[in-house]
Amino acid sequence: MTTDEMIIATCLKAGKIMVENGSEISRVDDTMMRIAQNAGVVAANTYVTITGVMMSIQGRNATQIAAVNQRTIDLEKVAQVNQLSREFAATTIDLPTLYQRLNQLDAASRSFPLWLQLIGAALVSGPLMIMFRQETINTWPTIIIGTLGYLVFYLLNRYLKIKFLSELTAALLIGFSAEWVCQIGWGTNVNDIIIGALMPLVPGVPLTNAVRDTLAGNFVSGPARGVEAMLSAAALGFGIAVVITLF
């Protein structure tokens, strides 16, 4: 691999990791350009979307493309890529080492352990319901239903690889469970329980990144992220609407 090919491969690896794990496009482009400049490239061109990352070096016959086939939210990996870029800028590590460590980061687990994610879902469901409704009587039903809903979403999304179907099924489970606990007298307000239990599934980061990318002038990635977030919200809303219609 030539020096130019190594530079482009390193930049693409960094950009691909960041896009796959939920970074906004402007940060991805800035990180790739900084790595290239610190590697001695005077003029480079990058084109970043949520489905692919491209880069070329002006005046040289060096162009590469990296496809982005899956996306999740892992901002810790985004921060680690930025940290590696800073170490490379400070000459703490050289280019081959940066490329090796990026590959190691890419091969690492893409998410936190399931048990930790379930704890996070529980902590999001109950406390947010208390924050918005200023009452605690429905806290435990909300925590349990929110955790079960996230577990169903996680398992279906892991094995079926269809995110929107997983969200729809989780929303149906949350809606039916909320109605059931209210009918047996454990919960008092089905709307509060549903709102709290849905919080771990709400696409907050994609929607935020869609707005940031659009405001930054990325009129391809911004609307694309917005559509993705809206489809997730529609799947959740449709699932709850079905339950409300039936009951």
From TrEMBL:
The organism's taxonomic lineage, starting at the top: Bacteria, Bacillati, Bacillota, Bacilli, Lactobacillales
Main location (coarse class): membrane
Threonine/serine exporter-like N-terminal domain: residues covered: 10-246
Subcellular localization(s) per the UniProt record: Cell membrane
Homology family: Belongs to the ThrE exporter (TC 2.A.79) family.
Protein name stated in the entry: Membrane protein
Keywords recorded for this protein, A-Z: Cell membrane, Membrane, Transmembrane, Transmembrane helix
Protein's membrane topology: Multi-pass membrane protein
InterPro entries, sorted: ThrE-like_N (IPR010619), ThrE_Dicarb/AminoAcid_Exp (IPR050539)
TM region positions: 112-132, 138-156, 168-186, 229-246
Organism for this UniProt entry: Lactiplantibacillus paraplantarum
